[in-house]
Amino acid sequence: MPLTPEQKAEIDRLRAERTPTRRATVPALEEILYEPIPVLDHGFIRVIDYMGDDAAVVQAARVSYGKGTKRVSEDRGLIEYLMRHRHTTPFEMCEIKYHVKLPIFVARQWIRHRTANVNEYSARYSILDNEFYIPAPDQLATQSSNNRQGRGEVLSGPEARRVLELLREDSERAYRGYVEMLNEDDSGAVLDAARQGLARELARMNLSLNFYTQWYWKTDLHNLLNFLSLRADSHAQYEIRVYAEAMIGTVDKWVPMTAAAFRQYRLGGAHLSERGLVAVRRLIAGETVTQEESGMSKREWAELMEVLGQKG
Amino acid sequence: MPLTPEQKAEIDRLRAERTPTRRATVPALEEILYEPIPVLDHGFIRVIDYMGDDAAVVQAARVSYGKGTKRVSEDRGLIEYLMRHRHTTPFEMCEIKYHVKLPIFVARQWIRHRTANVNEYSARYSILDNEFYIPAPDQLATQSSNNRQGRGEVLSGPEARRVLELLREDSERAYRGYVEMLNEDDSGAVLDAARQGLARELARMNLSLNFYTQWYWKTDLHNLLNFLSLRADSHAQYEIRVYAEAMIGTVDKWVPMTAAAFRQYRLGGAHLSERGLVAVRRLIAGETVTQEESGMSKREWAELMEVLGQKG
Amino acid sequence: MPLTPEQKAEIDRLRAERTPTRRATVPALEEILYEPIPVLDHGFIRVIDYMGDDAAVVQAARVSYGKGTKRVSEDRGLIEYLMRHRHTTPFEMCEIKYHVKLPIFVARQWIRHRTANVNEYSARYSILDNEFYIPAPDQLATQSSNNRQGRGEVLSGPEARRVLELLREDSERAYRGYVEMLNEDDSGAVLDAARQGLARELARMNLSLNFYTQWYWKTDLHNLLNFLSLRADSHAQYEIRVYAEAMIGTVDKWVPMTAAAFRQYRLGGAHLSERGLVAVRRLIAGETVTQEESGMSKREWAELMEVLGQKG
Amino acid sequence: MPLTPEQKAEIDRLRAERTPTRRATVPALEEILYEPIPVLDHGFIRVIDYMGDDAAVVQAARVSYGKGTKRVSEDRGLIEYLMRHRHTTPFEMCEIKYHVKLPIFVARQWIRHRTANVNEYSARYSILDNEFYIPAPDQLATQSSNNRQGRGEVLSGPEARRVLELLREDSERAYRGYVEMLNEDDSGAVLDAARQGLARELARMNLSLNFYTQWYWKTDLHNLLNFLSLRADSHAQYEIRVYAEAMIGTVDKWVPMTAAAFRQYRLGGAHLSERGLVAVRRLIAGETVTQEESGMSKREWAELMEVLGQKG
Q: What is the greatest pairwise CA distance in chain A?
């Protein structure tokens, strides 16, 4: 995450200013406002702005004239109740805006979450930096043998070295081709006065999916939690999961009661099917239940046993 | 807009507090934060929270590390450019939250704008106040003769008096029935200990569409401007238009450059059809153009002549 | 649900026509296409159009050139997998359109689901029919004592009779006032040539929330299932639940595999919290667990016991 | 657009089947259903399914029990009225589903339209084909000198040849690296039994943005027209514009009245600002107006003159 001195100075300038406001403020989030939090080898997230706090959830649920909050225990109880019973609209009353730097293939997964506002750095308009993602050695992995869209064991030895070398060489070559076609480097200097240069919107197509892009991304708390529950999940690709985990850290600072309820009722919980419930009731009654008689597939049964902390 | 002393006190408490923040603040909007702005006989809007300012639009368009703003004239030029060319995403980076009190029939039109977050006062849970909308005498109007969904001339004399009397009597009677069925008044006092009272979710169906409800309504600047361009339009029903106009006043305080561009390119402009453009080009060339040869319907032609300030 | 002879004839005309198509068709749904299914005393739902079937879900998940389906058991397995793991986008590839007649207070709950397309009968433009909802006697209920937004026991005797009488009288009176102000009845006949009549957009405000409105409502299968899981739930108000139940019947005909997976994994299942999972694991291990040591509130504990079929 | 014989056979099978339906059908669209329409060097669009027709727009606007259509001229007039006055909801009642094959950099622009349903071919799960976009020689262009995000004149001679060579070489090399890391080719054959192969979700990052992906994309008619008006515009990048143009051809077959109104009121029309209207009124009155006194920037003035067919 190499910020230029100019970028650092801009951030510092913003952080130095404080203005009085009548709006709800969250000191713990103010503390990290504008600060980049590193993710992967060149990426980051940083909180740029926010609206509301835990009390704003309570205030909206009560459609109140003032803060709407009562005792801390009552507020916490209401937030837990809303989370448990899928009363999602009060959580939509808080909003957060991030600046994110991320590899393009991660951006392609991320953008599938449609209930957000996005402004992406335009490669039609500007020249992309020479920054690309190379996985850390412990993140190189084989195709999973039991999950058709996941990773298996870590790749090592000469095969791993060759992968890293190949990724790096091809990325560097892609950027060289990009710059050559543009006839301009990322400082804007013309390379060869005898050439005209290719339009940016065309030249960019030579870059590979591990190049970094960046965007402003803004969403409400309810949709953010949906995003996080899907992307912080163990089935999500590692390269997006680390972004989700960094963002959960910012949610903890921003709305601690909501974040706790989210862990309790979403991240830490589990959904049982009708057949799963039947099996659980029988297990509690001390009966033995087998996969065969459960009516579940082997995979589904294995998932249930894992949730219940049983050996399949 | 009769706030109770408790409500007033709650608002005053909120307004009295000021906290330092690193976020963008807009002093002109802070000035009116939480204050109810009266609309119709018992309604209001009040700004409860906001995120961003004109500079946040510029910052998002540039995906910048700092404020992203340059000279005032450049920022204004960029905002005008974005508005003119329908580059809408930077305007989505600002967000505002209102508390609105409005008649149910207005709420029914308003809710059709789907890209917003809403928390409405629940009549399943709470008892509605005895407040209903009665039009001011100059707002009583006949059905329009040339617009099947609008108003014509003002109604006056005995017919107008009868309408006002009838609306008032029926509303009062509806509320009496509501309270009788609930067996409870809006202070929660039981009316007749021998009766059990009807569930709130059922009793409310006796209220008419002019009763007031209230909600928290939050949206981004782009979608707000869309809402305002439709609802501040002369074709919108008067009772929702006055809300839109009050809200435009708050947008002027919040994002003055964007508000000016909105007036210039949206509210004050006009969309010409292909046939309309042909007619305009011919008119500029000094030719005479008639409705018949324009290919337009009479109504469309009349609309064009009005836009051009010509007599049809 | 009194259709006029003209409406019946229109529906019969549509039902009589059959055209060949290359699109996916579902004979069981074609069977009931356009037919109104009665709900409440004057309401209905009817399926007006649909796109896709169970195979379209499979086809989209596989991004296939042809149907994408394989053996029935494989297709069912894939649909169950998608439902279980919240892979929701393939279900968005099916679409359905309903014509619904419903009381206004039900419409006000329904419209809160924003990811749908709606065209409502306009009372600015047309005159509403004299049809209002009166609950069946077994649906009159007191306010619930343990759930602040639900119903308790059935109301009976003189209090129930009085409620029904009051609802009916006030509704009839509201409609009389409406017609008098319009100076026009629902056939369009002018009542008193000496009067001008009030604009429709104003007169409608005299009607109460139990009057019927109607709309075209269109949504995709994923969002429909979300709607149904919330509105067919026992916490939903009875008057919207009966619509949801009638719609589930149409989903059974339309996409039987998806409907079965929906019952298995959504309607018939349950979500456990982190604390709930801990308790379940201990119960399976034969331990005794009490509410106090579970860390749950009394209400949450009672909900868990109910899900597990245990006595609290 | 090299379809494999298996893909062709699948499409032919689907096209051969015809089933009777009670739904609205559009023979002209049925004619091309499932057929790929070539776009760029390897891409295509094909219509997979549709719901509704011009009559469905009319039917929804009238909330009718039957077709709701009257005489052709009345229906056309209503559709034009709806288009002119931005009554968008009736157009949302028609839905269409496409299968699209497109370069990844085009997909990244396309996906920014959020009101659509998408299922994309998963490169976590499957291996991408060795197909990449190489611009036709007449589409190689320099950066525009007056539009910072567009193309200028066509590039030719040795510089153009070098660009094509470089794009092709780098793409081929990227695919070789992809296959080597996977240790598997696109037929699934293992290359080297001594290696394990990298997970697909990682290997894909070596591919460049001109590689083709494919998806199912479904949207309603209103949002489709929005997409088309932005992407068929002369400011849109050529590589997405050709997709939009091919899609407009399918809209012409599907809903000819709506398509004509769209050309008349959206594509062929123009939006004038408040200052633009003032200038037009003065020009019609025979006055001379200059850019300086118009209050417009040079660029805005040039845009107006172009719309009016005047020389600046």
A: 84
- Given a contact cutoff of 8 angstroms between Cβ atoms, the answer to whether C25 and D21 are in contact is yes
Q: Note the pLDDT of residue A87.
A: 93
Q: Angle at CA B306, nearest 5°, toward B303 and B312?
A: 85
CATH, domain D1-132+210-269, list 1.20.1090.10, 1.10.3720.10, 3.30.1360.170, 3.40.50.2300: 3.30.1360.170
Name the nearest CA neighbour of C204 among D280, B167, A238, A232. Answer: B167
Q: Do A268 and C273 touch (CB under 8 A)?
A: yes
Q: Could you give the maximum distance between any two Cα atoms of chain D, in Å?
A: 84
Our measurement of the distance from residue D201's CA atom to the centroid of its chain's CA atoms, rounded to an integer in Å, reads: 27
Prediction ipTM score: 0.95
Q: For chain D, which chains pass the contact test of at least 3 CB pairs under 8 Å?
A: A, B, C
For the question of residue B108 being annotated catalytic, the response is no
The whole-angstrom distance between D218's CA and the closest CA on chain C is 7
Cβ(C230)–Cβ(A86) below 8 Å: yes
φ, ψ of residue D215 to 5 degrees: the values are -155, 160
User: In a 10 Å sphere around its CB, with 0-12 CB exposed, 13-18 middle and 19+ buried, how is residue C140 labelled?
Assistant: buried
Q: pLDDT tens-digit profile of C3-38?
A: 899 999 999 999 999 999 999 999 999 999 999 999
Own/partner pairs, B62-65, CB within 8 angstroms, 24+ separation: B63/A99, B63/A119, B63/A120, B63/A121, B63/A214, B63/A215, B63/A216, B64/A10, B65/A3, B65/A6, B65/A7, B65/A10, B65/A11, B65/A99
> Which residues in chain D are closer than 8 Å to B310, comparing Cβ atoms?
284
- Only one residue has tokens 């190949």, namely A166
CA B135 to centroid of chain Cα atoms: 17
Q: Residue C292 class from Cβ within 10 Å (0-12 exposed, 13-18 middle, 19+ buried)? A: exposed
Strands (E), B40-94: 43-51
Report in angstroms the alpha-carbon separations of D238 from A208, C188, D141, D146.
Answer: 21, 55, 11, 17
> Which of A235, A263, A270 is opposite residue C277, by nearest beta carbon?
A270
Euclidean distance between CA atoms B117 and B219, whole angstroms = 6
Q: What CATH class has C5-133+210-267?
A: alpha beta
User: Which pLDDT tens digit goes with each residue over D70-84?
Assistant: 888 899 999 999 999
